[in-house]
Amino acid sequence: MRRSGTKMEILKGVFKKAIFIILPSMLLAGYFIEPRKVPLGIFMGALLGIVNLRQLSRNVEGFLGSQGATARMLITGMLRLLFLGVAIFALIYYKVVNIFGLLFGFTVVFVLIMVEGFKISKKG
Prior knowledge:
- By secondary structure, the chain is mainly α.
- The protein is about 85% helix and about 0% strand.
- It has one domain.
C-alpha cells in the first residue's frame, strides 16, 4: 500500500505544480511571443509528459508483483515510447506546435517529477 500511496503523491504533486507553472507560461508566451503555436506547444509538451508519467507509473505498479522484468514489461515500455515519439513527431511535422514550447512543457514536467521524487525520498 505504501508504494501506491507514494505513486499517487508524486502524480498529484507533479500535476498541481505543473498547472501553476504551465498556465502562466502559456499566457505569457501567447502574449509576448506568439499567440497560438508556442502556448499550444507548452500545453502539449506538459500533457505528453504527464500522460507518460501516468502510464509509466501504472506499468511499474502492475509489474511489481511479478518476478523482475518480463517480456510484457518490455513490450509495454517500448509501445509507450513509440506512442510518445510518434505524437511528438506528428505535432512537429505538421507544424501544429512550436518545438521550443513543446520542449519547455515536457521539461517542466520532467523537472517536477525529479523534484517530487526527491521530496518523497527525503520523507521515507
